[in-house]
Amino acid sequence: QVEKDMGVSFQLVPDQQQLEDVIRSEEARHRSFFDGVPVGLFRCSPAGEFLDVNAALIELLGRRTREALLGCTLVELLADSEAVARRAELQRAQGQLRDFEMRLRRNDGTVFWARESSRLVVDDAGIALYQEGVLQDITERKLKEAQAQARELVAAANQAMLDQFREIASIVDAVDAVVYVADLDTHELLYLNRYATELFGDGLGKRCYQVLQVGQKGPCSFCTNARLVVDGKPGPPVVWEFRNTRTQ
Questions:
Q1: For a FRET experiment, which of 69, 73, 139, 241 has its CA 20 to 30 Å from that of 232?
Q2: CB-based contact 115:133 (threshold 8 Å)
């Protein structure tokens, strides 16, 4: 490789000592470049054992030294067993991996998302020499994708509930009776049907005892909210009679 890089200058190296100096210089230059790349780089044996890793990969995998990774395999670090089989299948079928996403476990046990691109290097006779690849941390991107998906699911669920509520509202708006929904704890009015609005006006956002009654500074003495929930679950319906002080 040195001869290829230096061309005719290679022939000018006069003795073994100077040749070794050139080789060490080339190795140092290679190591400097290898360790300076800000993403994880690795070289593995055909069996998958790490032969060399750069500084970024050492940090990414939570190891203190290069030697702590040498001899280990990437498969040992996979957090999901199904990813092991899927990765091996892709390697057999394609001879390489391109943007393969997986979860890896660091030395301290924490798990993160990574993306691997790697290939098997062979000689002129087709004999496998080593694998080389790139490993990048994509945890932040995966987190944003999960958050976006969660927002979509919540939005879809809210829309479904809203559509269902509108169907119910169209029914209760046709009833000549007061129908309202109030928060159990704050007593805030969340919904009033058409008949209730005609009697009491638009009371949304106000306390039910302020809108439906007169002169009330707090919950009514006959309020049944505390009886509607039993051990954290909806209790049985409560029926009671009272005089409405606003309409008599």
A1: 241
A2: no
Amino acid, single-letter form, for residue 219: P
Say if residues 52 and 43 touch (Cβ distance below 8 Å).
yes
How do 233-234 and 40-44 pair as beta strands? unpaired
| β pairing state of 111-122 and 128-137 | antiparallel
How far is Cα 55 from Cα 40, in angstroms, rounded to an integer? 7
User: Residue 128's CB: how many other CB atoms inside 10 A?
Assistant: 13
59: three-class secondary structure by DSSP? helix
User: What pLDDT score does 113 carry?
Assistant: 95
Written as six digits, the tokens of 9 are 């200058």
How confident is the model over 68-122, as pLDDT tens digits? 888 889 899 999 989 999 998 988 888 889 999 999 999 888 999 999 999 988 8
Q: Which residue has the tokens 């009033």?
A: 192
- Distance, in Å, from the CA atom of 209 to the CA atom of 219, rounded to the nearest integer, reads 6
CA distance linking residue 45 with residue 131, whole number of Å: 6
Name, in order, each residue with C-beta under 8 angstroms of 3's C-beta and a sequence gap of 6 or more.
10
pLDDT at 8: 62
Q: Report how far residue 133's alpha carbon sits from residue 117's, in angstroms, rounded to the nearest whole number.
A: 5
Whether the pTM exceeds 0.85: the reply is no
Neighbour tally for 122: CB within 10 Å:
13
Q: What are phi and psi of 62, to 5 degrees?
A: 70, 30
The secondary element (H helix, E strand) that includes residue 210 is helix 208-211
Cβ atoms 134, 39 nearer than 8 A:
yes
pLDDT tens by residue, 22-54? 777 777 777 777 777 888 999 999 888 999 999
